[in-house]
Amino acid sequence: MPDLPPLREVIARHGLDARKALGQHFLFDLNLTGRIARAAGDLSVGTVIEIGPGPGGLTRALLEAGATRLIAIERDDRAIAIQQEIAAAWPGRLEIIAADALTIDLATLGEAPRRIVANLPYNISTALLLAWLRRADAFERMVLMFQKEVVDRLAAPPGDSAYGRLSVITQWLCTVRPLFGVDRRAFTPPPAVASTVVEIIPRPTPLAPARFETLERVTAAAFGQRRKMLRSSLKPLGDAEALIAAAGLDPTQRAETVPVEGFCALACALDS
């Protein structure tokens, strides 16, 4: 493995102070970055995609774990210079794309199987995930770090207070498995919240038939007034009573008690 300088030294040399506007919190614990890389499975085939690599701690771990084709997407010019040094140390294995990850269709990058492995910028993490879920069939797995409360929402079952729109959309298309927590003190600067690493694996087929856009509409209406019964919360969609009957649900149910398949049935009824 290349003999690269310590991350703190690299950061000082490149003036890479963490910027709040970019949602930057740097991870220096090499044991932790190695654990994240190992959670992504066999990296020797296909393409690994990292978002917002910053000083490159996770980038190094992914390469050390055997990634033969790693694509790093970074919008901060200071971090791009650091990534170029890492690319030179591992010739032919690291490609750097200077761009905002929200503008890139990751499903078109590299060869399958594709894995996304990242310590995500928390200010855009949910928007990124929803974009990737639209192309979920293009990815083998995602190993991502979010705020703990976001992972709680991703994994929440019906009836849980954290169960909501994000739970339904994600679980409809993927299995979700929280892996381990990360103390805020592991970062520089420490974020205001705890973090969790989660494994998200796209299903071979969605949990039930539905169109993505319609499912978004149904869950937006239902959880927009989550304390109301379905017969009230779904009124913006039209004839709520008819929709609920077509889906085989109880009109007195509240959104937080409806399983993913129930929302899919509502979406199909709305499209029929």
Automatic annotation (TrEMBL):
Provide the reaction this enzyme catalyses: adenosine(1518)/adenosine(1519) in 16S rRNA + 4 S-adenosyl-L-methionine = N(6)-dimethyladenosine(1518)/N(6)-dimethyladenosine(1519) in 16S rRNA + 4 S-adenosyl-L-homocysteine + 4 H(+)
Any single GO molecular-function term of the entry would be: 16S rRNA (adenine(1518)-N(6)/adenine(1519)-N(6))-dimethyltransferase activity
Enzyme class of the recorded protein, top EC level: transferase
What family does this chain come from, according to its entry?
A: Belongs to the class I-like SAM-binding methyltransferase superfamily. rRNA adenine N(6)-methyltransferase family. RsmA subfamily.
Q: Which domain of life is it from?
A: Bacteria
- List positions binding S-adenosyl-L-methionine: H25, L27, G52, E74, D100, N119
Compartments (UniProt record)? Cytoplasm
Q: Which PROSITE patterns match?
A: RRNA_A_DIMETH, SAM_RNA_A_N6_MT
What does the record give as the function of this protein? Specifically dimethylates two adjacent adenosines (A1518 and A1519) in the loop of a conserved hairpin near the 3'-end of 16S rRNA in the 30S particle. May play a critical role in biogenesis of 30S subunits.
Please give the chief subcellular localization of this protein: cytoplasm
Q: Its Enzyme Commission number?
A: 2.1.1.182
Q: Native species of this protein?
A: Phaeospirillum tilakii
Q: What is this protein called?
A: Ribosomal RNA small subunit methyltransferase A
Cited InterPro entries: KsgA/Erm (IPR001737), rRNA_Ade_diMease-like_C (IPR023165), rRNA_Ade_Mease_Trfase_CS (IPR020596), rRNA_Ade_methylase_Trfase_N (IPR020598), rRNA_adenine_dimethylase (IPR011530), SAM-dependent_MTases_sf (IPR029063)
The protein's matches in SMART domains, at most eight in alphabetical order, are given as: rADc (SM00650)
Give the record's keywords alphabetically.
Answer: Cytoplasm, Methyltransferase, RNA-binding, rRNA processing, S-adenosyl-L-methionine, Transferase
A Pfam family found in this protein is RrnaAD
Q: Which PANTHER family does the record match to this protein?
A: DIMETHYLADENOSINE TRANSFERASE (PTHR11727), DIMETHYLADENOSINE TRANSFERASE-RELATED (PTHR11727:SF7)
* Residues annotated as domain Ribosomal RNA adenine methylase transferase N-terminal: 32-204
- Which residues are in coiled coils? none
